[in-house]
Amino acid sequence: MDLHSRKVIAENVAGAYNFYQRFKGLMFKKHFPDSSGLHISPCPSIHTFWMKFPVDVLYLSRQMEVLEVDEKLRPGKIGKKVKGTASVIELPSGSIQAAGLAPGDVLALEEFPSRQIS
User: Fold this and answer.
1) What does pLDDT average to over the chain?
2) Residue 11 has what DSSP assignment?
3) Contact at 8 Å (CB) between 90 and 37?
4) 2: pLDDT strictly greater than 60
5) pLDDT of residue 9
6) How confident is the model at residue 66 (pLDDT cuts 50, 70, 90)?
7) Which 8-state DSSP code applies to residue 92?
8) pLDDT above 60 (res 45)
9) Which of 8, 49, 110, 112 is the most exposed place for a label (fewest CB within 10 A)?
């Protein structure tokens, strides 16, 4: 949720918080359902090797402030290196523009059990 606008950005956010989950991420997934996301922490940067679709990426500080955005990052690419990044959220391509997200926005994650992106 964007705390400034109170807008829900993704209904189903999975967490990748151990080595294996962070390593695997969205690799080899066939699709990324709308209104879903993957929060990867700790994570200063990402890659999209072995992914089959582009993603939008939010680079977040420890306080969940959006430091930078990377829209439509295509498969086989390396994401931006953003100073101060503590975690990232990967979203379906087009999500950042649709939600109107920009650096300076502050997000909140509701408590959720460990979920998987199908």
Assistant:
1) 89
2) S
3) yes
4) no
5) 86
6) very high
7) E
8) yes
9) 110
For residue range 69-87, what is the model confidence (pLDDT) as tens digits? 999 999 999 999 999 999 9
Cα separation of 3 and 95, whole Å? Answer: 16
Rounded to whole angstroms, how far apart are CA atoms 56 and 104? 17
Kindly state the tokens that stand for 34.
């709308």
Question: For the residues of 57-71, what is the DSSP string, one character each?
Answer: EEEE-TT-BEEEEEE
pLDDT surpassing 70 at residue 4? no
Instruction: Kindly state the DSSP code that residue 19 receives in the 8-state scheme.
Output: H
Residue 13 pairs in a beta bridge with: 37
Tokens of 90: 């990967």
Question: In degrees to the nearest 10, what's the CA dihedral of 38, 66, 23, 80?
Answer: 130
Q: How many CB atoms lie within 10 A of CB 53?
A: 15
Sheet with 87-92, strands from edge to edge, namely 12-16, 36-40, 87-92, 55-60, 66-73
Taking the whole predicted model, whether its pTM rises above 0.70 is answered as yes
